[in-house]
Amino acid sequence: MKVLVAVKRVLDPQVKARVKADGSGVDLANAKMSMNPFCENAVEEALRLKEAGVASEIVAVSIGPAKSEETIRTALAMGADRGIHVVTDEAVEPLGVAKILAAVAGSEAPGLIITGKQAIDDDSNQTGQMLSALLGWSQATFASKLAIDGDSATVTREVDGGLESITVKLPAVVSADLRLNEPRYASLPNIMKAKKKPVDKTDPASLGVDVSPRLAVLEVSEPEARAAGVIVGSVAELVEKLKNEAQVI
Amino acid sequence: MATLVIAEHDNAALGAATLNAVTAAAELGADVDVLVAGSGCAAVAEAAAKVAGVTRVRVADSAEYANGLAESLATLIVGLAGDYSHIVAAATTYGKNVLPRVAALLDVMQISDIAEVVSADTFVRPIYAGNALARVQSSDATKVITVRTTKFAAADDSSGSAAVESVDAAGDAGLASFVGQQLSESDRPDLASAKVVISGGRGMQNGDNFAMLDEVAAKLGAAVGASRAAVDAGFVPNDYQVGQTGKVIAPELYIAVGISGAIQHLAGMKDSKVIVAINKDEEAPIFQVADYGLVADLFEAVPELSKALDG
Q1: What are the phi and psi torsion angles at A8 (to 5°)?
Q2: What is the DSSP annotation of A87-100?
Q3: A68-126 confidence digits (pLDDT tens)
């Protein structure tokens, strides 16, 4: 079974986003960029399926500018077999991403697609669900455990109340939550080997996908900052302030 | 045209987050209908009819909706979508699971996790873990929206008198089946709506030590939460997680114990009214958002806090 994994290049999770002075967006110039953490979980899960003999080939897909190839190379260094880079300088919304991935799935015919549950830049949490809808496939979101059994998969999902388990027919789209696995680091030899792995280039128009945005971003602003607090000297002082000053207990 | 709110429920009781979603829907200015899709869910429909601001409750009572599987639910919602300009759900795992599927089938771009309704087509939503707020305007015919529950008050759940009518089920998509669930049982208030929350992080060292937090929580009527680090380490289950990708909460009082304050954690609690941080590392970023910081060893401070609350 072929597994398709979607990976996104985002602002590194350790870096705090800074809003541009003109309110047009977040300043990414010279910022450290990384693979979206949930996409790392997605890649790792695909690798484990291959190591278990369930997956035969892992194809990593990314959509974005020239530098998104670095994110694909990271997936290849972790162990993915080849990459597809859908090159665009436009900001593509989840609906557009889902349409592109559906077009790629049309030609690649994977048995399973794994996405991260959410990208930590736009925090939309949509792509996996939209992709499965467009393909008419089943979906298993927020997965913390995945077991493939023939033509179906049993997935444990992280839900607000705890955990839920569902069985979905394959092909399916699974979106990875953080507890699905612990992603591996790419070793130096594997990083070198990844440079030689094939990455096909295409673009949204070649795939027949219109990625015109549906949401106009009118303004991006900083949230109101919290007023500075105080350091208290003791538990007694803390309790006194919570009772008398803040009046919350 | 009217707005359709997708009710969240367990076939017995209406989920609290639905009340916040109704408030956001009412701000859109049109009539608000609520869809209750479930199996044997008449009690939920009755509860939804009592929610203030709801005009009509539409009930799809059929086996395929028993467990909220997204595939069948989305087909049902898309079938009703022609009557509505807006389709709204709370940004809970339930809403986040089904609504993007609806949006894709309608060929519209969902507006996730709105924090403010500016107008019927313009909304404010947090991005980058809440470190930026985007004001976005939708050009789609149908607006599909999930709602950040902490940003909208809960609608009154006793003064409404909506009409209840049934709608035809749209069939089982036959793609997925429910196996089972392991829901956390707790005597404590629900983490998402508790007025006081005490959370533990990596500094708690193990799951057993969370008993210290339980003790304080019992005295304060609080819920217990955790940082991602504590959940990843297996100290507590996933439903305790507060943060960018866990639960986003805004209690009156949030007490962070042994939590360093990563961006991702702050995203889930920085709208709390009062924040207390207890951490032995005075450099921990959590102190930058805390109203009251206590630099102390939590293994001394928490038992002391518990004792002080007796007095």
Answers
A1: -125, 140
A2: E-SSPPPHHHHHHH
A3: 999 999 999 999 999 999 999 999 999 999 999 999 999 999 999 999 999 999 999 99
Residue A26's closest chain B neighbor by CA? B132
Closest residue in A to B261 (Cα) is A14
Task: Kindly list the residues from chain A whose CB atom is less than 8 angstroms away from the CB atom of residue B109.
Answer: 93-95, 213-215
Distance in angstroms (rounded) separating the CA atoms of residues B80 and B56: 13
Q: Contact A16/B228, CB-based, under 8 Å?
A: no
Q: What residue spans of chain B are helical by DSSP H?
A: 16-26, 42-49, 70-80, 93-105, 210-220, 228-232, 263-269, 298-308
- Mean pLDDT value of segment A159-185: 97
| E strand intervals along chain A | 2-6, 9-11, 33-35, 57-64, 82-87, 112-116, 138-149, 152-159, 162-169, 172-176, 199-202, 215-221, 230-232
**Distance, CA of B74 to CA of B173 (rounded, Å):** 9
Rounded CA-CA distance A78/A128 in Å is 22
Copy the structure tokens of residue B234.
């297996």
Q: What are the chain B neighbours of A229 within 8 Å (beta carbons)? A: 275, 287, 289-293
**ipTM entry:** 0.96
* Residue in chain A lying closest to B245 (CA): A118
Q: Is residue B311 pLDDT above 80, yes or no?
A: no
Q: Tell if the CB–CB gap between A218 and B92 is shorter than 8 Å.
A: no
pLDDT per residue as tens digits for the range A189-218: 999 999 999 999 999 999 999 999 999 999
Cβ-Cβ contacts under 8 Å, B264 against chain A: 13, 120
- Exposed, middle or buried: residue A151 (CB in 10 Å: 0-12, 13-18, 19+)? exposed
What burial class does residue B254 get, using C-beta atoms within 10 Å of its C-beta: 0-12 exposed, 13-18 middle, 19+ buried? Answer: buried
